[in-house]
Design goal:
Catalytic activity: alpha-D-glucose 6-phosphate = beta-D-fructose 6-phosphate
Shape: globular
Number of strands: 16
Structural class: alpha/beta
InterPro entries: G6P_Isomerase (IPR001672), SIS_dom_sf (IPR046348)
Largest sheet: 6 strands, mixed
Protein name: Glucose-6-phosphate isomerase
Family: Belongs to the GPI family.
Helix content: 40-55%
CATH superfamily of the largest domain: Glucose-6-phosphate isomerase like protein, domain 1
Radius of gyration: 22 Å
Strand order of the largest sheet: 11-12-16-15-13-14
Keywords: Gluconeogenesis, Glycolysis, Isomerase
């Protein structure tokens, strides 16, 4: 790596294919214009959106005043014995803080779920030592609003004033900006979209309160800012963007992301949202496939539809590798993905298909009878109820159904596993990704619901129309009422799963929903059925 702490390695054949695109980016002055926040880079249709979404290019400078504010609040809280930080946020409001704190080894409890058991687990922590960071750009995110209400009621029940234990991060003018029941409001830069907000208050406040060195993060980004703004063929962001676009043009519409010893924990999950939500629209885009490591199925054995990308040193079959400190990687990938948008002819700052699933979920919440009057399962296999969209088979054993379903993945398509479960207690569900990929030979993604709705959910509806979707839902032994709302967390979770499934089916995407009437037993049966599949 250079002194600027960033390094890119590209397979020679791919680099040769990318050379014309790289030359075009350099000659058009894209890097310097992006750094100067030129909203015309993506065409006239995107200009109005881009004009209010480009402040992220200068956050290594403009976020500096936050450092002192965060440190002062953290010291005040610690002096009161409050040292446990819980973050209520979705998508761009949670993914960056989770990566930052995990990489630095400091504790942060992240709530980006509507699963009652996972929220109850967070509530079971020591509330006397807890501060809740409520983080939402719009101020109306239904999951985050529900978490705030649940925690405020729990604080009051313990005799704790919620106004002393709730910290807000939001945009100016949002409903949360006027919240009286909070200790402090941090207003983020409104000219930054959620997935580009790692170095705004959304990334820095929860991470800093938890004890991460956010000043160092900004320093790391500052070290590479000039390099990434240079109109030269050596610019790592330009090289990365050209390689991604060239791979896509060659039919490799998927990026398989594996950590190869970067020293960063969970970077793929952050990059997943950035790539999928920025590029997956108008029937095109790059689908990120986050895998367990370079030896995982889908990476070293990737076919022509996918490009293995190492986060860390090159090797293990990677065609692209990106090395660097966390702050540098944030700015590198944001810059490269914005440039890919220009090369693919799309607006990298909107998310036109995300609202559809939210609207469908709200409709079901508004009509509880419709939500709970679901049709009878097409089949029952022990603790697993099977619900299939039109054209999806539900005959035979559970293994037979999975075999028939996965066979519907078209050539060059993908399988998406969507688990509306507890990502702590039901963590074994994540093993399904590698098992299905190994046995089907197709690129397979895994997402925790509703977390992925704020991430890959855009690509699922707006990207290449070649995905099939395996939904997992589960019965909840105990539910949690959302105060002052006519629904429980369990009801909200089910509405989100059914709403998204409905939208996917309306888009002609095959959907198979497996409902676990007993989560542990159902997951065990599902794993056994997957192991019966043969490539």
């Amino acid at each position: 790596m250079s002194a600027q702490q960033i390094g890119i390695t590209v397979d020679p054949a791919l680099e040769a294919a990318a050379a014309p695109l790289l030359e075009k980016l350099v000659s058009d002055g894209v890097a310097s214009e992006l750094s100067a926040q030129d909203a015309t880079l993506w065409g006239s249709d995107a200009e109005s959106e881009a004009s209010i979404r480009l402040s992220w290019t200068g956050l290594h400078r403009t976020s500096r005043p936050l450092i002192g504010e965060i440190e002062a609040l953290r010291n005040d809280l610690r002096s009161e014995g409050v040292d446990r930080v819980v973050l209520a946020g979705m998508g761009g409001s949670s993914l960056a803080p989770e990566v930052i704190t995990a990489t630095e080894g400091v504790s942060l409890t992240v709530l980006d779920t509507t699963d009652p058991a996972q929220v109850a687990d967070a509530l079971a922590g020591d509330l006397d030592r807890t501060v809740l960071v409520v983080s939402s750009k719009s101020g109306t995110t239904v999951e985050t609003d529900s978490h705030r209400r649940v925690f405020a009621a729990a604080f009051e029940e313990e005799g704790i004033d919620p106004a002393r234990r709730i910290v807000v991060v939001t945009d100016p003018g949002s409903p949360l900006a006027e919240l009286e029941q909070c200790r402090k409001v941090f207003l983020a830069d409104p000219h930054v979209g959620g997935r580009y907000s790692a170095l705004t208050a959304f990334g820095l406040v929860p991470a800093g309160l938890a004890g991460a060195d956010v000043a160092r993060l900004l320093d790391q980004a500052a070290l590479v800012a000039d390099v990434l703004a240079a109109d030269t063929s050596e610019n790592p962001a330009l090289r990365l963007a050209a390689a991604f676009a060239a791979a896509h043009d060659g039919g490799a519409e998927k990026l398989v992301l594996a950590d190869t010893g970067s020293g960063i924990t969970g970077f793929g999950d952050w990059a997943e949202q950035l790539i999928a939500e920025s590029t997956g629209k108008q029937g095109t885009g790059l689908l990120p496939v986050v895998v367990e490591g370079p030896d995982a199925p889908g990476f070293g054995d990737a076919g022509g539809d996918a490009t293995p990308v190492a986060i860390g040193p090159a090797g293990n079959g990677a065609r692209i590798a990106a090395e660097g400190s966390l702050g540098a990687q944030f700015l590198l990938w944001e810059s490269a993905v914005a440039m890919v948008g220009r090369l693919l002819g799309i607006n990298p700052f909107d998310q036109p298909d995300v609202e559809a699933a939210k609207k469908a979920a709200r409709s079901l919440l508004d009509d509880p009878d419709a939500l709970h009057a679901t049709s009878a399962p097409a089949a029952v296999a022990g603790a697993v109820e099977v619900y299939a969209s039109a054209g999806t088979s539900a005959e035979g054993s559970l293994a037979d159904m999975l075999r028939e379903f996965t066979a519907t993945v078209p050539d060059g398509g993908y399988l998406a596993v969507q688990a509306y479960l507890d990502r702590l207690d039901d963590a074994s569900a994540a093993l399904l990704r590698s098992e299905l990929a190994k046995r089907t030979g197709v690129q397979t993604t895994f997402g925790w619901g509703p977390r992925f709705l704020h991430s890959t959910g855009q690509y699922h509806k707006g990207g290449h129309p070649n995905g099939v979707f395996l939904q997992l839902t589960g019965a909840s032994e105990e539910d949690l009422q959302v105060p002052d709302r006519p629904y429980t967390l369990g009801t909200l979770q089910l509405a989100q799963a059914l709403g998204d499934g409905q939208v996917l089916a309306d888009h002609g995407r095959p959907v198979l929903r497996l409902h676990l009437t007993d989560r542990a037993a159902g997951l065990a049966e599902l794993v056994r059925a997957v192991q019966e599949l043969h490539r």
